[in-house]
């Protein structure tokens, strides 16, 4: 029996997020296309990470709902998202610093297989080793295999984090400023990686360096002061007068 | 940086040396060999059994504190429950020693599971306070159940003179024999722990210790991981308590007192939390100090307290943790 797959992989239905009395996000309704690269852009403090955290299940909206493949996932525990097929990387690099690069990916991949097996030696799970080696190749970290993650350069850690996210074989990959703190060359290779990954899965990324994402995105959302200011194709966004005024008018990064 | 990451220095050249890996993979065997000669290295042979028992207790505590960074002030409840239930099995039901040890271990495990269900959601200081409050409840229950536990007089009548092992009669009254029996069980527990740490679940413990939110994002249910670790911790502490009961032939009510909880914290910090042998080293140092210093002054606690503070201030990784780090440099 084949079920028709809808074009929409993820949808938010008027989500609002308040921190105390402060409204970080107001009533955002939109949907994300399957197979596309969608970028969420906006100036500092616009609410991008907050929105991202609602999508990735790290935060629960104060109001509104989030649907993944038409299933209501609002308030579903964070650890279940990996199993649903949603994986993410954090805005602030987040790896297991005292484990090797290989172990970082391996333990991330293990989450799909087992957590509480305490009697078999972990060395037996050869397929996890292979998965980890494959992903090291994907993100170009083969020569860092046995280095501690904490000893890697910043750009390498960001790449590692993406490999860790990929380890759960997600259909939706969420990346919060994957190029944060990167040099222009590193940014370039990260963008190439994202485009390559985008061929096989849906990607939503947050970025405030707008000029980098215009080239690689199928769609963009512009947030400003917690509101959805505009959405559309890169060309539509480039031409949008309101966006120009509040965003492009600022000093470019 | 969390408390627990302090104990884990980055891997050094030595750690990557193949011999180091080989020694590490045989560390339980090495420990067993060491324990064979251990009593003869001590100025006081009688302390050896105590070091084993409290060392095991501190190992159980370390599983939570050292590996997950959870500071419990209620571990006396696990140690005490193991001791009392083992004692009750012998004194009231006349069960054989091995059955009593199993009962002690299981009851420590169950008590931990029960406490764990209540506390795993709490963090930081709340975790410490709630575990302590729960252990006080346990203390009260055992204190009141006089007909079973002897109340404030302690549980007496746990008399075991010979252990019957598959027809083999072992004289448990001989101190050295007793030491080797306890040592064998402790080595068994260490072997079990070492397997757990080398298992997939051990990898999850490492991941949670290193970065809780990343582990959660990878798909691990952190509360569940904590609950399982707490329960396992209870198994080790329960066995330690049960051994204490057959060793002392009495279970004093102080076993459940929060002093006993504090002891685990002290021993762990002294030796080096998050290291495999640190808790044993800590237990050894503490008990030797106590025994030696109390021979020439009644104010031994003052000295032990001073040494403890010195350790925390100048050797934050504990004695064993510092030795390991020196070796690895
Ligand atoms: N946990 C929180 N508690 C209180 N306020 C918060 C919290 N998280 C975010 N905020 C506030 O919400 C607003 C939006 O923050 P958010 O991190 O989503 O911005 P952003 O668009 O990701 O910015 P940046 O580009 O700096 O990452 C900010 O004003 C921030 O101070
Ligand atoms: Mg942000």
Overview of this structure, please?
- The complex is a heterodimer of chains A (about 250) and B (about 325).
- With about 250 residues, chain A is of the alpha/beta class.
- Helix content of chain A is about 35%, strand content about 25%.
- In chain A, the strands form 2 sheets. Chain A has a 6-stranded mixed sheet with strand order 6-7-8-3-9-10, sandwiched between helices. Chain A has a 4-stranded antiparallel sheet with strand order 2-1-4-5, covered by helices on one side.
- The longest helix of chain A is centred in the last third of the chain and has 15 residues, at about 185-200.
- The mean pLDDT of chain A is about 90.
- With about 325 residues, chain B is mostly helical.
- Helix content of chain B is about 75%, strand content about 0%.
- Chain B has helices at about 15, 20-25, 25-40, 45-70, 75-90, 95-120, 125-145, 145-150, 175-200, 200-210, 210-215, 220-250, 260-270, 280-295, 300-315, 320-329, and strands at about 160-165, 170.
- Chain B has a two-stranded antiparallel ribbon with strand order 1-2.
- In chain B, a hairpin with a 2-residue loop joins strand 1 and strand 2 (about 170).
- The interface between A and B is large, with 46 and 32 residues.
- The complex binds adenosine-5'-triphosphate (ATP) and magnesium ion (MG).
- Adenosine-5'-triphosphate binds next to strand 2 and helix 1 of chain A.
């Amino acid at each position: 029996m084949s079920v028709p797959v809808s074009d929409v992989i993820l949808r938010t239905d008027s989500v609002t997020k308040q921190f105390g009395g402060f409204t970080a996000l107001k009533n955002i309704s939109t949907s994300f296309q399957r197979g596309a690269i969608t970028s969420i852009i906006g100036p500092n403090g616009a609410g991008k990470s907050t929105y991202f955290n609602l999508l990735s299940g790290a935060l629960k909206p104060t109001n509104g709902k989030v649907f993944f493949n038409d299933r209501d996932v609002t308030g579903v525990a964070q650890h279940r998202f990996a199993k649903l097929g949603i994986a993410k990387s954090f805005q602030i690099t987040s790896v297991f610093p005292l484990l090797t690069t290989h172990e970082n990916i391996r333990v991330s991949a293990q989450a799909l297989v087992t957590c509480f097996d305490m009697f078999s030696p972990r060395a037996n799970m050869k397929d996890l080793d292979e998965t980890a080696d494959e992903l090291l190749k994907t993100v170009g970290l083969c020569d860092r295999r046995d280095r501690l993650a904490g000893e890697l350069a910043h750009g390498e850690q960001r790449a590692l984090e993406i490999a860790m996210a990929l380890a759960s074989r997600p259909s939706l990959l969420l990346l919060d400023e994957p190029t944060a703190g990167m040099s222009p060359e590193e940014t370039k290779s990260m963008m190439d990686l994202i485009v390559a990954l985008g061929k096989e899965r849906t990607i939503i990324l947050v970025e405030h360096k707008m000029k980098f994402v215009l080239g690689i995105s199928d769609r963009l959302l512009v947030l400003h002061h917690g509101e959805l200011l505009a959405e559309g194709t890169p060309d539509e966004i480039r031409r949008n007068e309101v966006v120009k005024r509040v965003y492009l008018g600022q000093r470019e990064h | 940086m969390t408390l627990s990451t302090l104990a884990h220095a980055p891997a050094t050249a030595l750690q990557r040396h193949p011999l180091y890996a080989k020694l590490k993979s045989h560390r339980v065997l090495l420990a067993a060999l060491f324990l064979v000669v251990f009593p003869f290295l001590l100025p006081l042979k009688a302390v050896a059994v105590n070091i084993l028992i409290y060392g095991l207790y501190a190992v159980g505590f370390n599983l939570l504190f050292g590996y997950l960074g959870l500071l419990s002030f209620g571990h006396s409840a696990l140690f005490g429950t193991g001791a009392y239930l083992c004692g009750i099995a012998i004194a009231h039901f006349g069960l054989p020693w091995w059955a009593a040890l199993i009962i002690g271990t299981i009851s420590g495990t169950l008590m931990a599971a029960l406490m764990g269900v209540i506390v795993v959601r709490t963090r930081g200081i709340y975790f410490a306070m709630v575990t302590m409050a729960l252990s006080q409840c346990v203390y009260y229950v055992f204190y009141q159940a006089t007909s079973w536990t002897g109340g404030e007089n302690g549980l007496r009548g746990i008399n075991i003179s010979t252990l019957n092992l598959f027809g083999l009669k072992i004289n448990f009254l001989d101190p050295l024999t007793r030491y080797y029996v306890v040592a064998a069980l402790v080595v068994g527990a260490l072997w079990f722990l070492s397997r757990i740490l080398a298992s997939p679940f051990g990898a999850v413990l490492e991941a949670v210790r290193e970065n809780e939110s990343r582990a959660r994002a990878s798909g691990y249910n952190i509360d569940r991981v904590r609950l399982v670790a707490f329960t396992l911790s209870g198994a080790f502490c329960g066995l330690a308590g049960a051994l204490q009961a057959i060793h002392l032939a009495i279970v004093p009510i102080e076993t459940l007192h929060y002093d006993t909880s504090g002891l685990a914290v002290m021993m762990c910090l002294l030796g080096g939390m998050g290291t495999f042998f640190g808790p044993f080293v800590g237990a050894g140092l503490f008990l030797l100090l106590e025994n030696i210093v109390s021979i020439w002054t009644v104010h031994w606690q003052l000295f032990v307290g001073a040494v403890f503070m010195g350790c925390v201030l100048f050797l934050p990784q504990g004695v064993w943790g510092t030795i390991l780090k020196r070796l690895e440099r």
